[in-house]
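go over this chain:
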Amino acid sequence: MSAGLFNRVSDALLGLIYPRRATCMGCGSRTGFPRDWLCEDCRQALSSRWVGAGRPPEGGLFKGAAYAYHYGGPAGGLVRNLKYQGVTRLAAGMGRSMASVFALIQPTGADCVAPVPMHPKRLRERGFNHAALLARAAGDRLELPMADALKRVRNTRQQARLPDDARRANMAGAFELQMDVKGKRIVLVDDVCTTGATANACAKTLLDGGAEAVYLLCYAVAGEENRGA
């Protein structure tokens, strides 16, 4: 079965298991609600955790950064359901939020959006790259093409399982270019920024390859509550 057909079949099955109007993707409530994906409590909680333009990860590699929400609560539920449960239809709404928040760091003169890549082995296991789904959804709203500028050449340990001081070493040499980025202004897209180790490794690869500037756009940011501007 091709990856595309597998994803469509999986999406159809998930539509039966997780009806849009029956199960909240933020908290898992099955009490039913009139609007898509989130119960009203989670919808209100999510709106209170909006970030906006924020501080880029330490290292001085990014020209700017924007995050839609603080991680945790409903935002965390949405990320986990997209990433681990395969509810890929969530990407459209999450991408809209990311496009809205990106407007706060414009004008950038960006040329494209580029997702943080997955290693081919992990991509085959999961069947999709959640960052690519978000990049495409946000890029469509921003009228920016999506470019697979990077490839992951090391199947690194999952960052979430590592202490902060080990994440940078885990990402060393993990990415390579797979297109010409000379002179381009690139918006790097991921679901969550925690310490910024992954994002910085991607940005360094892009800048070493001649990119003019790199911006960071994530659905959520973890860590300090004052990470926003």
